[in-house]
Structures are given as structure tokens and as C-alpha cells.
């Protein structure tokens, strides 16, 4: 890669040339790839870009507020709270693949409404090199995306030749905070792939609270730099416990701490036992619905990183 500064001026010039004066849209997730692409494109074409951040009700604790606070001032930014729409479509659905399909479909419906509202001609995507390199030859550099309504958007991919560590360097050079630049990968379907069974607001709140504790303790111990991902999963298994002097019957939460280079394979590294114990104790004492915490020790393969 060029030096980050050079890459940035080069990328901005290319985006300007490619898009010209047309209206453009990006789905901004708050992950480093889409964040870097949003800022590069805003610098290139100004408010002809609309950066849409969709809250599907499956975000982590504090995530919506954090993404809004970073980008509200910096971009032509649109926050859409579509959580009611997503969660009502997901109500009662337990099958993991079905959940993923619904989340993907509703996301496109929400996004398409926004693309139509601004009459977008271009779609910016945060594709990076590992996303296409293995299928090189099959993917054309310039491809379009047809939305279900028949609306066709031309796709622009400003960081498609970069690897994750290079995107991070560019993000830092653009002045993005570490909370975005160093953020652990978070899947598009969000907590939807980390709550086993029904995706109710109550279950999501339990997963979110446990996950916040995992993140806080891992980051406090400085282990976030070593791990690829670290999070909590809420299972639909209930386990007998005792809290105070009372019998309790609450949920089993699983802690997932993962080392990986590219998520194709992954291992569970040894972690300081004190950190694990603190996480476990905090979850059972602070999240009243949980009686039992387990540590996942399964690598990928045979397991996948996510649970659903
Ligand atoms: P798995 O569970 O397949 O996950 O081992 C591999 C990596 O991909 C992430 N992941 C997703 N990312 N949309 C995404 O944007 C998805 O549907 C999705 N499913 C899994 C996962 O977090 C891990 O980093």
C-alpha cells in the first residue's frame, strides 16, 4: 500500500472522478471498513453522500450512541432506528438460518427506502482484499447491485485493495478514534447470531449486558489487542442456581474468546484465569437472569466463531 496520506489523496481523487455529481449512499455499520469508506467518500463528494446507520435492535450496549457521536458531525449522516421493524419480523423465529434471512431481507428493505429517498445512483461498499481475493477472476472490478425494486446502484469500493491492518492505518490518518479503528469485527446480523432461540427484547438485553461485561474486562486487562473477537452468547438452556439463599433457575451464558488472523480458522487461546473468573462472577451477580457462565474452548473448525 502507499503511505496512508498518499493513499487518502489518491482514493479521494478516484472517488471524485468515478462518482462525479451523482447522489451516493453507504450503509455505515461503525466497523472500520465502512467507516473509512464513509469518510473518504464524504471528503470526495461532500453531502452528495448519505451515510445510513441502521439500528436493527441487535446492536451492543452503547453502540448506537457511540457511532452517532463519532459521525453525526462529520458526515451527511442518517440514523434509522428500525428495531421495531426487525424485531417484529423476527418474533418467534428460532431457526438460525431463518433469522439470518429475515435480518438480511429487512436490512435491504430499510436501505432501499433510503436509497430511493435520495435518488442514489452509486453505492459505496467497504469491501477489502480478503473479501474477494480467494475468488479472484470471478468478481469483476466494476459490478452493479440491483435492489429488489429494480433500482440499480453502481458499486464503488474505495478500499478493495487493502487488508484490515492497512484500513486501520488509513482510519487513524483520517482522525477516526480507536473505538472505531481498533474495533473487533462485529457481524452484520449482530446479537441475532449470539442469542440462541427467540430474539425477544428481553433476551437481547440479557445478552447485551453480559457482552458489555466481557468487553469491559477483556479491554481492562489489555487482552483486546491479542484477541480477534471476544463476546458473550446467550443460550436457551436454563440451569439451576442459588442466589442469596434462594433457588434460582436462570440462563446459561457462554464466553467466547477467539484468536484468528482471518476468521477462516480460529483458536481459543489460554487466558489469565483471573480475568475469566471476574467475568463469570460479574455476569452472575450483575445480570439477574443468568445463573451459570461457561467458557467455550472449541476451535474453528469444527465449531464456527458465532453460535447461530
Ligand atoms: P463464523 O461464525 O462463520 O464467523 O466462524 C466468521 C467471522 O465472520 C463473522 N460473521 C459475519 N459477519 N455477517 C457478517 O458481517 C454475517 O452474517 C456473519 N456471520 C459471521 C464472525 O463474527 C466472524 O468474525
Automatic annotation (TrEMBL):
The record lists ATP as bound by: 29-35
Q: What's in the keyword line of the UniProt record?
A: ATP-binding, GMP biosynthesis, Ligase, Nucleotide-binding, Purine biosynthesis
Q: What is its EC number?
A: 6.3.5.2
Q: Name one GO molecular function term.
A: ATP binding
SUPFAM superfamilies from the entry?
Answer: Adenine nucleotide alpha hydrolases-like (SSF52402)
Enzyme class, one word?
Answer: ligase
Concerning InterPro entries, the annotation shows:
GMP_synth_C (IPR001674), GMP_synthase_B (IPR026598), GMPS_ATP_PPase_dom (IPR025777), NAD/GMP_synthase (IPR022310), Rossmann-like_a/b/a_fold (IPR014729)
Catalysed reaction, written as an equation: XMP + L-glutamine + ATP + H2O = GMP + L-glutamate + AMP + diphosphate + 2 H(+)
Origin: domain of life: Archaea
Give the record's pathway: Purine metabolism; GMP biosynthesis; GMP from XMP (L-Gln route): step 1/1
* GO cellular component terms, semicolon-separated: cytosol
Its transmembrane ranges are: none
Q: Where is the GMPS ATP-PPase domain?
A: 2-183
Role of this protein:
Catalyzes the synthesis of GMP from XMP.
Task: Identify the PANTHER family for this entry.
Answer: GMP SYNTHASE [GLUTAMINE-HYDROLYZING], GMP SYNTHASE-RELATED
Relate the assembly described in the record: Heterodimer composed of a glutamine amidotransferase subunit (A) and a GMP-binding subunit (B).
Q: What is the protein name for this chain?
A: GMP synthase [glutamine-hydrolyzing] subunit B
Source organism (scientific name): Methanobrevibacter ruminantium (strain ATCC 35063 / DSM 1093 / JCM 13430 / OCM 146 / M1) (Methanobacterium ruminantium)
